[in-house]
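Before surveying the methods themselves, let us examine one representative protein, pairing a chain with its fold in token form.
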Amino acid sequence: MKKLITFNQNLGRKLSKLKDLPLLFLRIILAVGFYGPAMMKLKNIDGIISWFADMGMPMPALNAYLATATENLGVLFLILGFSTRIISVPLIIVMIVAIKTVHLANGFESGNNGFEIPLYYILMLFTLFIYGPGKYSLDYLFNKRIK
């Protein structure tokens, strides 16, 4: 038992040196995930406004532009690791609205257009909000220079 505990402690010490990699990977996968919807909205903003209006969303034009800007900035900021904690908040809000307006009625499973994927995005964004972007980011470089 003592050998198992020692092995676990040694493994933990070695793996802690890689702790910034999962944060980088979270940022990249989120940016890739937001890229498609962001581009779709950007290329067809009038269609998005109509879709939002058809769903009964208040101020559909304003909300379409806000969602489009948030997702596009999110892609850029997440890739760069710039203002990661700040952009995480509006992206979480976009995901909550998406769940409420589109996905919730379809249940949990992503195969049924349920809220599974947006929920995962919220959890990943919340992780970035709490832990920050890690050392492979502009935020880290800027914070290092300021200190």
Summary: The CA atoms of residues 36 and 116 lie 17 Å apart.
